[in-house]
Write a structure and sequence with these properties.
The protein is α/β, with parallel strands linked by helices. Helices cover about 40% and strands about 25% of the residues. InterPro entries: CinA (IPR050101), CinA-like_C (IPR036653), CinA_C (IPR008136), CinA_KH (IPR041424), Competence-induced_CinA (IPR008135), MoaB/Mog-like_dom_sf (IPR036425), MoaB/Mog_dom (IPR001453).
Length: about 400
Amino acid sequence: MKAQIFSVGTEILLGNITDTNSKFIGQKLTEYGIDVYKMVTIGDNFDRLFQAMKNAYGKVDYIFVTGGLGPTEDDISKEVAIKVIGKEGQVEIDKKSKERIESYFSNNKKAVKVNLKQVKFPNGAIILDNDKGTAPGCIMGDKTKIILLPGPPREMEYMFENKLSSYLKKDAIIKSKNLRIGLLGEWDMANRIDLSSTNPTISPYFDNEGGFLRITAKAKSEKEADFLLNEKEKEVKNVFGNLFISDDGLRKEETLINLLKERNEKVSTCESITGGLIASSIIDISGASEVIEESYITYSDKIKEKILNVSRETLDKYSAVSVECANEMIEGLYKITNSSLCIGSTGYAHKGEVILAIKYKNQKVIKKFQFSADRNKARLFAKNRALDLAIIIMRGKYEDNIDI
Protein backbone atom coordinates (compact mmCIF):
# COMPACT_ATOMS: atom_id res chain seq x y z
CA MET A 1 0.00 0.00 0.00
CA LYS A 2 1.29 3.47 -0.94
CA ALA A 3 0.39 6.96 0.24
CA GLN A 4 1.17 10.61 -0.29
CA ILE A 5 0.64 13.30 2.35
CA PHE A 6 -0.28 16.90 1.54
CA SER A 7 -0.24 19.62 4.20
CA VAL A 8 -2.14 22.67 3.02
CA GLY A 9 -1.60 26.21 4.23
CA THR A 10 0.34 29.28 3.20
CA GLU A 11 1.17 29.89 6.87
CA ILE A 12 3.27 26.69 6.83
CA LEU A 13 5.26 27.85 3.79
CA LEU A 14 5.87 31.22 5.46
CA GLY A 15 7.27 29.48 8.52
CA ASN A 16 4.59 30.87 10.81
CA ILE A 17 3.59 27.40 11.99
CA THR A 18 5.30 24.01 11.99
CA ASP A 19 3.77 21.08 10.14
CA THR A 20 3.55 18.35 12.79
CA ASN A 21 0.62 16.67 11.05
CA SER A 22 2.70 15.07 8.30
CA LYS A 23 5.10 13.63 10.86
CA PHE A 24 2.24 12.18 12.89
CA ILE A 25 0.51 10.66 9.86
CA GLY A 26 3.78 9.30 8.49
CA GLN A 27 4.56 7.53 11.75
CA LYS A 28 1.07 6.06 11.96
CA LEU A 29 1.10 4.84 8.36
CA THR A 30 4.46 3.17 8.95
CA GLU A 31 2.92 1.30 11.87
CA TYR A 32 0.10 0.20 9.58
CA GLY A 33 2.48 -1.05 6.89
CA ILE A 34 1.57 1.73 4.44
CA ASP A 35 4.54 3.22 2.58
CA VAL A 36 4.67 7.03 2.40
CA TYR A 37 6.08 8.05 -0.99
CA LYS A 38 5.92 11.82 -0.59
CA MET A 39 5.16 14.58 1.88
CA VAL A 40 4.31 17.88 0.22
CA THR A 41 3.41 21.30 1.62
CA ILE A 42 1.30 23.51 -0.64
CA GLY A 43 -0.08 26.99 -0.02
CA ASP A 44 -3.72 28.01 -0.29
CA ASN A 45 -3.68 27.97 -4.09
CA PHE A 46 -6.41 26.03 -5.91
CA ASP A 47 -4.53 25.35 -9.16
CA ARG A 48 -1.30 24.20 -7.51
CA LEU A 49 -3.08 21.91 -5.08
CA PHE A 50 -5.28 20.51 -7.85
CA GLN A 51 -2.30 19.73 -10.06
CA ALA A 52 -0.40 18.05 -7.23
CA MET A 53 -3.36 15.92 -6.16
CA LYS A 54 -4.28 15.07 -9.75
CA ASN A 55 -0.73 13.85 -10.38
CA ALA A 56 -0.92 11.56 -7.33
CA TYR A 57 -4.47 10.31 -7.94
CA GLY A 58 -4.46 6.77 -9.30
CA LYS A 59 -0.75 6.28 -8.56
CA VAL A 60 -1.07 5.62 -4.82
CA ASP A 61 -3.67 3.92 -2.64
CA TYR A 62 -4.19 6.88 -0.32
CA ILE A 63 -3.84 10.66 -0.49
CA PHE A 64 -3.91 12.31 2.93
CA VAL A 65 -4.67 16.04 3.06
CA THR A 66 -4.51 18.10 6.25
CA GLY A 67 -5.83 21.63 6.51
CA GLY A 68 -8.03 23.73 4.28
CA LEU A 69 -11.37 22.40 5.56
CA GLY A 70 -12.59 25.54 7.28
CA PRO A 71 -15.34 27.99 6.25
CA THR A 72 -13.25 30.73 4.62
CA GLU A 73 -12.51 31.32 0.92
CA ASP A 74 -8.92 30.12 1.22
CA ASP A 75 -10.05 26.77 2.70
CA ILE A 76 -9.97 24.91 -0.61
CA SER A 77 -8.93 21.32 0.10
CA LYS A 78 -12.36 19.73 -0.20
CA GLU A 79 -13.29 21.61 -3.36
CA VAL A 80 -10.00 20.57 -4.97
CA ALA A 81 -10.49 16.93 -3.99
CA ILE A 82 -14.04 16.95 -5.39
CA LYS A 83 -12.71 18.23 -8.72
CA VAL A 84 -9.94 15.61 -8.76
CA ILE A 85 -12.47 12.77 -8.45
CA GLY A 86 -14.83 14.45 -10.97
CA LYS A 87 -17.85 15.04 -8.72
CA GLU A 88 -18.23 18.83 -8.88
CA GLY A 89 -21.97 18.63 -9.59
CA GLN A 90 -22.68 15.85 -7.11
CA VAL A 91 -22.35 17.65 -3.78
CA GLU A 92 -24.92 17.78 -1.01
CA ILE A 93 -25.23 18.85 2.63
CA ASP A 94 -24.83 16.03 5.14
CA LYS A 95 -27.78 16.22 7.53
CA LYS A 96 -25.96 14.88 10.59
CA SER A 97 -22.99 17.20 10.10
CA LYS A 98 -25.34 20.17 9.63
CA GLU A 99 -27.08 19.38 12.91
CA ARG A 100 -23.73 19.32 14.69
CA ILE A 101 -22.88 22.77 13.28
CA GLU A 102 -26.29 24.14 14.30
CA SER A 103 -25.83 22.78 17.80
CA TYR A 104 -22.28 24.15 18.04
CA PHE A 105 -23.39 27.65 16.96
CA SER A 106 -26.86 27.51 18.54
CA ASN A 107 -26.72 31.19 19.56
CA ASN A 108 -25.26 32.50 16.32
CA LYS A 109 -27.32 31.91 13.16
CA LYS A 110 -24.87 33.91 11.05
CA ALA A 111 -22.05 31.57 12.06
CA VAL A 112 -24.19 28.58 11.12
CA LYS A 113 -24.67 29.96 7.61
CA VAL A 114 -20.97 30.70 7.17
CA ASN A 115 -19.94 27.24 8.38
CA LEU A 116 -22.34 25.28 6.16
CA LYS A 117 -19.52 25.06 3.62
CA GLN A 118 -17.87 22.57 5.95
CA VAL A 119 -20.75 20.07 5.79
CA LYS A 120 -21.04 19.73 2.00
CA PHE A 121 -19.74 16.44 0.62
CA PRO A 122 -19.75 14.53 -2.69
CA ASN A 123 -22.05 11.54 -3.10
CA GLY A 124 -20.59 8.39 -1.59
CA ALA A 125 -18.14 10.13 0.75
CA ILE A 126 -17.45 8.58 4.15
CA ILE A 127 -17.75 11.36 6.73
CA LEU A 128 -15.41 11.53 9.72
CA ASP A 129 -17.04 13.42 12.60
CA ASN A 130 -14.92 16.08 14.29
CA ASP A 131 -15.43 15.74 18.04
CA LYS A 132 -12.84 18.42 18.80
CA GLY A 133 -13.87 21.14 16.31
CA THR A 134 -16.32 22.11 13.58
CA ALA A 135 -14.76 20.85 10.33
CA PRO A 136 -15.56 17.18 9.60
CA GLY A 137 -13.09 15.06 7.71
CA CYS A 138 -14.04 12.67 4.94
CA ILE A 139 -12.92 9.90 2.61
CA MET A 140 -13.70 10.10 -1.11
CA GLY A 141 -12.54 8.66 -4.42
CA ASP A 142 -12.42 5.31 -6.17
CA LYS A 143 -9.04 4.30 -7.60
CA THR A 144 -7.34 6.32 -4.86
CA LYS A 145 -8.91 7.14 -1.50
CA ILE A 146 -8.51 10.85 -0.73
CA ILE A 147 -8.65 11.37 3.04
CA LEU A 148 -9.30 14.93 4.20
CA LEU A 149 -8.39 15.81 7.79
CA PRO A 150 -8.57 19.10 9.73
CA GLY A 151 -5.44 21.22 10.11
CA PRO A 152 -5.30 21.85 13.89
CA PRO A 153 -3.11 19.01 15.25
CA ARG A 154 -5.37 18.38 18.24
CA GLU A 155 -8.37 17.82 15.96
CA MET A 156 -6.44 15.89 13.33
CA GLU A 157 -4.74 13.47 15.73
CA TYR A 158 -7.98 12.70 17.58
CA MET A 159 -9.84 12.14 14.32
CA PHE A 160 -7.09 9.90 12.96
CA GLU A 161 -6.94 7.76 16.10
CA ASN A 162 -10.68 7.55 16.79
CA LYS A 163 -12.41 7.85 13.40
CA LEU A 164 -9.91 6.79 10.74
CA SER A 165 -7.56 4.13 12.09
CA SER A 166 -10.20 1.38 12.09
CA TYR A 167 -10.91 2.15 8.40
CA LEU A 168 -7.24 1.88 7.47
CA LYS A 169 -6.92 -1.42 9.32
CA LYS A 170 -10.28 -2.87 8.28
CA ASP A 171 -8.92 -5.38 5.78
CA ALA A 172 -6.09 -6.76 7.88
CA ILE A 173 -4.54 -7.33 11.28
CA ILE A 174 -1.55 -4.98 11.60
CA LYS A 175 1.04 -5.56 14.31
CA SER A 176 4.37 -3.88 15.00
CA LYS A 177 7.39 -4.63 17.12
CA ASN A 178 10.38 -2.45 18.02
CA LEU A 179 13.80 -4.10 18.17
CA ARG A 180 16.42 -2.05 20.02
CA ILE A 181 19.95 -2.23 18.58
CA GLY A 182 23.00 -1.10 20.55
CA LEU A 183 26.20 0.78 19.74
CA LEU A 184 25.20 1.79 16.20
CA GLY A 185 24.06 5.05 14.64
CA GLU A 186 21.01 5.15 12.39
CA TRP A 187 23.01 4.98 9.14
CA ASP A 188 25.17 2.06 10.33
CA MET A 189 22.09 0.20 11.50
CA ALA A 190 20.15 0.75 8.27
CA ASN A 191 23.17 -0.14 6.13
CA ARG A 192 23.40 -3.65 7.59
CA ILE A 193 19.95 -4.94 6.77
CA ASP A 194 17.71 -5.18 3.71
CA LEU A 195 14.95 -2.58 4.11
CA SER A 196 13.12 -3.54 0.91
CA SER A 197 10.89 -6.13 2.57
CA THR A 198 7.20 -5.32 2.01
CA ASN A 199 5.51 -7.61 4.52
CA PRO A 200 6.73 -7.33 7.14
CA THR A 201 8.11 -3.87 6.50
CA ILE A 202 11.21 -2.89 8.41
CA SER A 203 12.15 0.71 9.14
CA PRO A 204 15.10 2.21 11.07
CA TYR A 205 14.53 4.90 13.69
CA PHE A 206 16.70 6.88 16.05
CA ASP A 207 15.47 8.44 19.29
CA ASN A 208 17.06 9.74 22.50
CA GLU A 209 18.05 6.20 23.46
CA GLY A 210 19.70 5.32 20.15
CA GLY A 211 18.68 3.14 17.23
CA PHE A 212 15.84 0.69 16.82
CA LEU A 213 14.11 -1.16 14.01
CA ARG A 214 10.33 -1.23 13.73
CA ILE A 215 8.92 -4.36 12.09
CA THR A 216 5.31 -4.13 10.88
CA ALA A 217 3.36 -7.14 9.65
CA LYS A 218 -0.01 -7.17 7.91
CA ALA A 219 -2.08 -10.37 7.82
CA LYS A 220 -5.60 -11.75 7.82
CA SER A 221 -5.23 -13.14 11.34
CA GLU A 222 -3.30 -12.31 14.49
CA LYS A 223 -1.61 -15.72 14.36
CA GLU A 224 -0.31 -15.05 10.85
CA ALA A 225 0.88 -11.55 11.81
CA ASP A 226 2.75 -12.96 14.82
CA PHE A 227 4.39 -15.58 12.61
CA LEU A 228 5.58 -12.95 10.13
CA LEU A 229 6.95 -10.77 12.95
CA ASN A 230 8.77 -13.66 14.60
CA GLU A 231 10.40 -14.76 11.36
CA LYS A 232 11.63 -11.26 10.60
CA GLU A 233 12.84 -10.84 14.18
CA LYS A 234 14.97 -13.98 13.82
CA GLU A 235 16.53 -12.45 10.70
CA VAL A 236 17.28 -9.17 12.51
CA LYS A 237 18.84 -10.95 15.48
CA ASN A 238 20.97 -13.00 13.11
CA VAL A 239 22.19 -9.87 11.31
CA PHE A 240 22.98 -7.82 14.42
CA GLY A 241 24.09 -10.65 16.68
CA ASN A 242 25.62 -9.40 19.91
CA LEU A 243 24.45 -5.84 19.24
CA PHE A 244 20.80 -6.77 19.77
CA ILE A 245 19.56 -5.16 23.00
CA SER A 246 15.84 -5.84 23.43
CA ASP A 247 12.54 -6.66 21.76
CA ASP A 248 10.17 -5.88 24.62
CA GLY A 249 9.84 -2.12 24.27
CA LEU A 250 11.72 -1.48 27.50
CA ARG A 251 14.14 1.40 27.91
CA LYS A 252 17.79 0.42 28.09
CA GLU A 253 17.90 1.44 31.73
CA GLU A 254 15.03 -0.96 32.48
CA THR A 255 16.80 -3.77 30.65
CA LEU A 256 19.96 -3.12 32.69
CA ILE A 257 18.05 -2.92 36.00
CA ASN A 258 16.28 -6.20 35.24
CA LEU A 259 19.59 -7.94 34.52
CA LEU A 260 21.02 -6.69 37.82
CA LYS A 261 17.91 -7.69 39.78
CA GLU A 262 17.92 -11.19 38.30
CA ARG A 263 21.50 -11.66 39.52
CA ASN A 264 21.13 -9.73 42.78
CA GLU A 265 23.97 -7.43 41.73
CA LYS A 266 24.77 -3.73 42.11
CA VAL A 267 26.00 -0.96 39.80
CA SER A 268 28.11 2.10 40.58
CA THR A 269 29.29 4.92 38.33
CA CYS A 270 32.09 7.46 38.08
CA GLU A 271 31.34 10.10 35.47
CA SER A 272 33.29 12.96 33.98
CA ILE A 273 31.97 13.85 30.51
CA THR A 274 28.47 12.53 31.26
CA GLY A 275 28.24 14.50 34.50
CA GLY A 276 25.92 12.07 36.30
CA LEU A 277 23.73 11.41 33.25
CA ILE A 278 24.28 7.64 33.37
CA ALA A 279 23.35 7.31 37.04
CA SER A 280 20.47 9.76 36.69
CA SER A 281 18.93 7.84 33.79
CA ILE A 282 19.05 4.64 35.85
CA ILE A 283 17.60 6.34 38.93
CA ASP A 284 14.72 7.65 36.76
CA ILE A 285 13.42 4.07 36.55
CA SER A 286 11.29 2.52 39.27
CA GLY A 287 13.24 -0.18 41.08
CA ALA A 288 16.62 1.54 40.70
CA SER A 289 17.06 1.65 44.48
CA GLU A 290 17.48 -2.13 44.45
CA VAL A 291 20.49 -2.05 42.15
CA ILE A 292 22.31 1.29 42.23
CA GLU A 293 24.96 1.63 44.91
CA GLU A 294 27.20 4.68 44.53
CA SER A 295 27.69 7.42 41.95
CA TYR A 296 30.43 10.02 41.65
CA ILE A 297 30.80 13.00 39.33
CA THR A 298 34.57 13.22 39.01
CA TYR A 299 34.83 16.12 36.60
CA SER A 300 38.11 17.75 37.64
CA ASP A 301 41.55 16.13 37.72
CA LYS A 302 41.75 16.95 41.43
CA ILE A 303 38.62 14.93 42.22
CA LYS A 304 39.77 12.06 40.00
CA GLU A 305 42.89 11.91 42.16
CA LYS A 306 41.11 12.42 45.47
CA ILE A 307 38.18 10.03 45.08
CA LEU A 308 39.25 7.49 42.47
CA ASN A 309 42.98 7.49 43.21
CA VAL A 310 43.95 8.30 39.61
CA SER A 311 47.69 9.03 39.73
CA ARG A 312 49.09 12.47 38.99
CA GLU A 313 51.66 10.78 36.78
CA THR A 314 48.91 9.30 34.58
CA LEU A 315 47.13 12.64 34.31
CA ASP A 316 50.32 14.51 33.44
CA LYS A 317 51.58 11.94 30.96
CA TYR A 318 48.34 10.88 29.23
CA SER A 319 45.75 13.51 30.30
CA ALA A 320 42.33 12.94 31.86
CA VAL A 321 40.92 11.95 28.47
CA SER A 322 42.89 8.80 27.87
CA VAL A 323 42.48 5.05 28.07
CA GLU A 324 45.00 5.04 30.91
CA CYS A 325 42.99 7.51 32.97
CA ALA A 326 39.71 5.68 32.25
CA ASN A 327 41.34 2.45 33.41
CA GLU A 328 42.44 3.96 36.72
CA MET A 329 39.03 5.59 37.20
CA ILE A 330 37.15 2.31 36.86
CA GLU A 331 39.62 0.41 39.03
CA GLY A 332 39.38 3.12 41.68
CA LEU A 333 35.60 2.96 41.61
CA TYR A 334 35.68 -0.82 42.01
CA LYS A 335 37.98 -0.57 45.05
CA ILE A 336 35.59 1.92 46.69
CA THR A 337 32.32 0.14 45.94
CA ASN A 338 33.09 -3.50 45.15
CA SER A 339 30.05 -3.35 42.86
CA SER A 340 29.60 -6.18 40.37
CA LEU A 341 29.12 -3.59 37.59
CA CYS A 342 31.15 -0.38 37.41
CA ILE A 343 30.65 2.22 34.68
CA GLY A 344 32.97 5.17 34.02
CA SER A 345 33.20 7.96 31.46
CA THR A 346 35.67 10.62 30.42
CA GLY A 347 36.10 12.74 27.32
CA TYR A 348 35.88 16.13 25.63
CA ALA A 349 32.22 17.02 25.08
CA HIS A 350 32.95 19.89 22.68
CA LYS A 351 35.02 17.57 20.49
CA GLY A 352 32.62 14.63 20.75
CA GLU A 353 35.52 12.51 22.00
CA VAL A 354 34.42 9.90 24.55
CA ILE A 355 36.13 7.08 26.43
CA LEU A 356 33.94 4.62 28.32
CA ALA A 357 35.12 2.06 30.85
CA ILE A 358 33.00 -0.89 31.98
CA LYS A 359 34.08 -3.42 34.59
CA TYR A 360 31.82 -6.41 35.25
CA LYS A 361 33.23 -8.89 37.73
CA ASN A 362 36.55 -9.96 36.18
CA GLN A 363 35.92 -8.49 32.71
CA LYS A 364 36.96 -4.96 31.80
CA VAL A 365 36.28 -3.10 28.56
CA ILE A 366 37.58 0.36 27.69
CA LYS A 367 36.29 1.78 24.43
CA LYS A 368 36.85 5.02 22.51
CA PHE A 369 34.08 6.73 20.57
CA GLN A 370 33.96 9.79 18.34
CA PHE A 371 30.63 11.58 17.88
CA SER A 372 29.92 14.40 15.44
CA ALA A 373 27.55 16.37 17.63
CA ASP A 374 27.26 19.32 19.99
CA ARG A 375 28.31 18.83 23.61
CA ASN A 376 24.89 17.88 24.98
CA LYS A 377 24.20 15.36 22.21
CA ALA A 378 27.70 13.94 22.66
CA ARG A 379 26.95 13.43 26.36
CA LEU A 380 23.63 11.76 25.53
CA PHE A 381 25.30 9.47 22.98
CA ALA A 382 27.95 8.60 25.58
CA LYS A 383 25.26 7.67 28.11
CA ASN A 384 23.51 5.43 25.59
CA ARG A 385 26.73 3.71 24.52
CA ALA A 386 27.66 3.09 28.15
CA LEU A 387 24.33 1.36 28.79
CA ASP A 388 24.69 -0.65 25.56
CA LEU A 389 28.14 -1.85 26.55
CA ALA A 390 27.05 -2.72 30.08
CA ILE A 391 24.10 -4.82 28.85
CA ILE A 392 26.17 -6.62 26.19
CA ILE A 393 29.00 -7.34 28.63
CA MET A 394 26.64 -8.59 31.36
CA ARG A 395 25.09 -11.00 28.86
CA GLY A 396 28.54 -12.36 28.04
CA LYS A 397 28.16 -11.20 24.45
CA TYR A 398 31.05 -8.74 24.21
CA GLU A 399 33.99 -9.58 21.98
CA ASP A 400 37.07 -7.42 21.38
CA ASN A 401 36.39 -7.47 17.64
CA ILE A 402 32.71 -6.59 18.01
CA ASP A 403 31.58 -5.00 14.75
CA ILE A 404 30.76 -1.33 15.44
